[in-house]
Amino acid sequence: MSAQEDHAVFLQKMINFLNKNLTVNFLIVFIIFFLDRITKRYVINHNEKNYGSELFNSKFLDIRLIWNEGIAFGLFSFNEDFFYNILTFIIGMVIIIILIMIKKSEGLKKYSLLMIIGGALGNFYDRIFFKAVPDFIDFHVGNFHWFIFNVSDIFITVGVVLMIVLEVISNKKENNNEKS
After folding, report:
1. What is the pLDDT of residues 139-179, one digit of tens each?
2. What mean pLDDT, rounded, does the chain reach?
3. Is the pTM of this model over 0.70?
4. Looking at the annotation, which residues are catalytic?
5. What is the 3-state secondary structure (H, E, C) of the chain?
6. d(CA 121, CA 152)
């Protein structure tokens, strides 16, 4: 067996182990949630002590707190509690659907869903307890600012991108098999 085949066998054994181990899956979600909580708490505490001043400011990155009442990147922000509560309920339902998908998934798809659920739970927690999600990472070039986001958003985005890549690869394999 070649070294490359050894690596592939080892990687497959590790994936099989992780798929069977509920504790590892829970730990992944917990670590993401914990990282999100720590970073948000730090920024919120700094903001309260320094009356809203920026935590960090550079040519391309600012760390400053804003409260997002909408969903991803501030979309669907509502001033009325009724619409906010409906949106929060829908997000809760999506979280339940993702949990079901995790149960039925394996391999890298499961880990991408675990990243998404870890981030979603972090932001959902904030929606319930703060009635808004604290966002604080602001990338910019000159006067062009990207959407302000947080650690949960990073994991959600990486998980979604990984899901898309896996789907594209899966579709290419299916198309190649059909042509053969």
Report:
1. 999 888 888 999 999 999 999 999 999 999 988 888 777 77
2. 87
3. yes
4. 135, 153
5. CCHHHHHHHHHHHHHHHHHHCHHHHHHHHHHHHHHHHHHHHHHHHHHHHCCCCCCEECCCEEEEEEEECCCHHHCCCCCCHHHHHHHHHHHHHHHHHHHHHHHHCCHHHHHHHHHHHHHHHHHHHHHHHHCCEEEEEEEEECCEECCCECHHHHHHHHHHHHHHHHHHHHHHHHHHHHHC
6. 8
